[in-house]
Automatic annotation (TrEMBL):
Protein name as catalogued: Bacilysin biosynthesis oxidoreductase BacC
NCBIfam families (UniProt xref): PRK07231.1
Domain of life: Bacteria
Origin species: Luminiphilus syltensis NOR5-1B
Family, as annotated: Belongs to the short-chain dehydrogenases/reductases (SDR) family.
Keywords recorded for this protein, A-Z: Oxidoreductase
Amino acid sequence: MELRLDGKVALVTGGGKGLGRACALAFARAGADVAICDVDETAAAAVKAEIEAANQRCFTGSCNVSSAAEVKEFFHGAVEALGSLDITLNNAGVSAPIVPLAETEEADFDRLMSVNLKGVWLCLREALRIMEPQGQGNIINMDSALGRRTFPGVGLYVSSKFAVAGLTRNTAIEYAEKGIRINAMCPGNVATPLLVSSTTEEMQGILADQHPMKRLGTEEEIANLALFLASDASSFMTGELVAADGGWTAL
């Protein structure tokens, strides 16, 4: 089965690097025009060049997803530039130090919830405001395997991702009869450039061992899932938390 997005317009937040970049490129290669935002404008420009090399249009912008005004400006700029909005991937997110909860800081909590939860809510809300009058749309939230299970030291991150899971499922039910599908992806530990550059080989081995498959995932494997959820191949799916985690959440 070939997954195609011909004639579609997709928007990806945090699309300049890592999983966002991989998903944006997968959408473009499948025939979609793509809007990407990233706080790193240089990275976004590089992805734009790759998308245009695939003969698809690309709109880029800098957007702090925790700002309602910036989210609205970016989403409507994308619609004006590309003509519509069919697919939204709410990918932008941040992490925090792995420490016991008593050692966490208020600034870490505020930053995580501002981006990982408020940012998803604002982008989800803006996408719905555009898609509902169209009578159709497809929204994918980037959650995590840690939106379904836990381990010590990541209480704040887990809390933000459990909240995204609940927001995804509840909103999907609200809009199921309006032609808008809403699902979430729940990746395990993935060998993104950030993870590889910020961890030792020993730590990468520990992270890999959390998966029964005993390896890290790849960006391409997560992008393949995003493409499936963005395509009509998943047309009877909404409100799902779809794992791509090497069996981690099956334990």
